[in-house]
Predict the 3D structure of the following.
Amino acid sequence: MYIDVGLSASIKKEQLEDKVYFPLALGKVFNITSELNLPEELFPGFVDHVEIIENQKIEYPIIVDRIFNTNTRQFYWNGDKKLSFTARDILPGNEYRQTDTRNFNKFNSKNVKAQFDGLEYSRFFKQGRKDLNGGSIFLNYKNDYATYLNVTFSIRPPEENFGSIFLVGTFNNWQLLQEYEMENNSGIYSKTAELKRGTYDYQYVAADVVNGKIKNADWLILEGNYWETSNTYHIFLYYKDPNYGGYDRLIGYSKIVSR
């Protein structure tokens, strides 16, 4: 049986002070705190952890565990029934890029560009427009033009970018995948994906490929970091239930949107 413990959440803007950041935008972070008063039928010692999912990035949860307290992941218990979990130094990022191929008159062939004007560039110093918080909108399946297109994404990064670039978005569940590594042709990185006609949120991620594995992913260097970014954070509270051999039991959920 699911018990809703009434999990509340708050978000606070902070500026990192323990390091020197350049550009200064990299020091802008969110701190998210979730609080609860545990009902009598549950025991504080079994409250285990919270998972925070930003938008639809389910593969990259932010976890605050009661056992492993650090400077950025903190658990508090008042000795009675009040508990809280705080995740600090969450980078807000930027609004996602977006491609919209629903207009058949504009995108009227099988092979199209994600942006009608062609090349994209770094948005580190440019805040993006409002997005779908990692979502997508498909053309109605009854529409005669609701077909699949070969959509080519292309970006010319700054010259100081020497690593690999990966295309991530709602179409690959926001995962960094080797099959979405972009091809570098004289400084222009491109990747073609077969997508159903519609609107998709996406972004470019710089990373290194070491022995066939993707490492040192940087989600900000090509996209920027702004407090004004609107993200949806889904917060799940888990309880280490000792019954039935023990299992992680979901006992609370909350959602908060940064503005």
